[in-house]
Specification:
Number of strands: 0
Number of domains: 1
Structural class: mainly alpha
Largest sheet: none
Strand content: under 5%
Length: 233
């Protein structure tokens, strides 16, 4: 079968030349808009589900137990925020190299970040004795559902924006994007959930983050990998 005619090639080249590629600033604005929009949508969905669960009497926190002080809340949030910022910087941001971080750095950030935020929340929440027992917190299913609802849309948005962009380690890049979504949900849920009971934390807080990392790694292998271009015959 013969290839495309010279006339068709000229039309295609003319169309490409007449369709300017977005500048770096435009691409950045589009990315920020997509991420912010998906995050707001996820939060709105999570809030709606949380209110519905509350109306049906499904509550993760027993009000008769001692609440967090503002100091404990801020210490927990700021500590988790610092860990999240450092982890996302090394796991998801490209840095100065167009090829991104090294495998070792990205893998270390993905593995250590969930452990670090768990330790911080458990240690700081332990300052209030009632927060670390099963008398204060239930299983964690509400936190689990809200975490998934909050992070799913930002994860999908960033994977789409970064599609076909990683020639070296697409799975690790996907895991880093998943970690970013997991850290976002961790911070959101940590603001309102004071429970530090270990089974609750593992199910309602840690499991969503690990799940996002795993989903990001699998999706990265398909959507972030640069595919070789082959002309159609």
């Amino acid at each position: 079968m013969s290839g495309p005619s010279p006339e068709l090639k000229q039309r295609v080249l003319a169309a490409v030349q007449n369709t300017p590629a977005p500048t770096a600033d435009e691409h950045q604005r589009q990315a920020i808009g997509a991420i912010v929009g998906s995050t707001i949508a996820g939060l709105a969905l999570a809030i709606a589900v949380g209110m519905a669960l509350h109306w049906h009497g499904i509550n993760e926190v027993k009000p008769q137990s001692p609440p967090r002080t503002i100091t404990v809340l801020l210490e927990s949030f700021i500590g988790s925020l610092a860990i999240a910022a450092i982890a996302v910087y090394f796991a998801a941001a490209r840095g100065r190299s167009m090829l991104g971080r090294s495998r070792q750095v990205m893998a270390a950030a993905v593995v250590l970040a969930p452990i670090a935020v768990f330790v911080v929340k458990r240690a700081i929440g332990g300052q209030v004795p009632g927060l670390v027992t099963s008398d204060y917190g239930q299983a964690g299913l509400k936190c689990l559902s809200i975490s998934f609802l909050t992070g799913a849309l930002p994860l999908a948005a960033v994977l789409y924006l970064r599609r076909f962009s990683d020639p070296i380690h697409p799975r690790l890049s996907g895991a880093g994007i998943g970690l970013s979504a997991g850290m976002l949900t961790w911070l959101v849920v940590d603001l309102w959930c004071p429970v530090c009971y270990v089974p609750h934390l593992l199910l309602g807080h840690v499991l969503p983050t690990v799940t996002f990392i795993a989903v990001g790694a699998v999706a990265g292998g398909y959507f972030l990998r640069i595919r070789p271009w082959t002309p159609r015959s």
